[in-house]
Amino acid sequence: MSAAYEEKQILDEDGIRRALTRIAHEILERNQGTDGLILVGLRRRGVQLAEHLAGLIAQFEGVQVPVGELDVTMFRDDLDLRGTRPIVHRSSMPAGVTDARIVLVDDVLYTGRTVRAALEAILSYGRPRQIQLAVLVDRGHRELPIRADYVGKNIPTAHHEQVEVRLREVDGQDEVVLVRGAAG
Q1: Domains detected in the chain
Q2: Of the chain's two ends, which shows fewer C-beta atoms within 10 Å, N or C?
């Protein structure tokens, strides 16, 4: 039994750059600047996206916004369903989470369960004034009442489809693809 996969490119390198540029401007506008702002990337590709956004904000405002890195593995609600021993990676949060305006950054928003885990993880560091959500792709199919404040692209999908965000730092190239698999 073999499987055939079909990929369709949704965003190329320029499309990702344009989406992140727009998100960076929207973050600055909504937060009226950078005071008290912290970007927190969700492992794995959310970290690179948060760093890209921080670079764009520094370019626009001349201010380096702190970037945190969050692994939500131990906060997930499906740990016992996975049946394997989870691999936990290091999280690093900038000092001063309490009273900060945090923008969680992730690559793909799907069911909302990863974001729920991220909210719980952030609250273990302190009590931020506000938590916002920025995602490169929103593919729908929410299971929890969670919505992104900033979205690079909405991509309606079927449950059997996958959205893969590929970033140069991790995958060697920047693109977003829709993957359809069929058993053959």
Answers
A1: 13-159 (3.40.50.2020)
A2: N
